[in-house]
Amino acid sequence: MTGRIDIVSIFPGYLAPLELSLVGKARQDGLLDVTVHDLRDWTSDRHRTVDDTPFGGGAGMVMRPDVWGHALDEVLGEQDTPAGQSLLIPTPAGERFTQAMAEELALQVCAGGQLAIACGRYEGIDARVAEHYAEQEHVTVREVSIGDYVLNGGEVAALVITEAVARLLPGVIGNPQSLVEESHGSAGLLEYPVYTKPPSWRGLEVPEVLRSGDHGRIGTWRRSRAVERTARRRPDLLVRHAPPQVRLAKGVD
Ligand code: 6GU
User: Looking at the keywords, is Ion transport present (predicted)?
Assistant: First the structure.
């Protein structure tokens, strides 16, 4: 059984890349059901208004809870699934979106559940929307950020989340082994550097060990490059996978 992903946005055209490449192919093959909705379809005034000025003052506009309520009641209401529903609200003020979260969501979608993504613009969505849907029995609400920088809206995050989840669904990736060794997987290390033909290019050589055919040495070399790369670029990941004594000393937990 396969569940669905629904994305609500005032710029549905922003989600057009979901028709391309791996996700596009998965949709065509019926492995994944993604629907993009225009939030303005749930407005009722002539100007199709979705926002208003913030209570308490301040710059920018806030998205109205009534419009979002109509949209999400309909999008979440279509589904009655024992696998449950997740409502993701992308925001730079959210908890960090991780591979672990992508895996959790993929399992839910795979089991017939629903993932809905509510893309805010402007200064964000009235906080009562997250609060209201969190009170619904079958809905888990998560406000998520894709990294420490500020985007103009949730659409790019929705693309990121959808791709991260979709590629974990059975049949979407041709060779499941490629899911096993990659960065941020279970080993907790960044991926080792990779090479292909030609063996010599612009005076740069492919490391000899990779051409040796000695799979023991190749494995050792790759692990050590992965650790070295991780230590340089993401020392925080090494600490996270360190033994309990180190974690305790560094106050990771
Ligand atoms: Cl999810 N939204 C916006 N607007 N900015 C972000 C983000 C999300 N994650 C990082 N920056």
Answer: no
